[in-house]
Prior knowledge:
By secondary structure, this protein is mainly beta. 0% of the residues lie in helices and 51% in strands. The strands form two sheets. Strands 2, 4, 5, 6, 9, 10 and 11 form a seven-stranded mixed β-sheet that branches. Strands 1-3-8-7 form a four-stranded antiparallel β-sheet, with no helix packed on it. A hairpin with a 6-residue loop joins strand 5 and strand 6 (58-60).
Amino acid sequence: EVQLVESGGCLVQPGGSLRLSCAASGFTFSTYAMYWVRQAPGKGLEWISYINTGGASTYYADSVKGRFTISRDNAKNTVNLQMNNLKPEDTARYYCRVNAYWGQGTQVTVSS
C-alpha cells in the first residue's frame, strides 16, 4: 500500500523559513519522480515542484522559484521542500504526490 506522510507545516511569519518532509512507503521510492502540490483556501491545486528519481533534475512553479528547494533522500525514502522567504500567499495545504497517490497534507500558514 502506497503511503505518503507529510510533516513540518506550521504558522510562520512572513520572511520566515520552513522545511517540509514527506515520508514514503509501499513502493520503490528511488524509481519514481516526486512532486509537491499545494492548495490555498478557496483555490485550486497548484503544482509547485518536481524532482526526478536521482534528484539531479528539479523544476519549480514561477510563484516559488528562487525561494523553494526540493530534495530527496532515496536511502530514507523521503522528499523535502525547503521554503525560504515565505509570503502570505504561500499559505496553503501542501501535499506530496507520486503518480495518482497523495498524502494527507500539511498546513502552512504565513501570517504576522
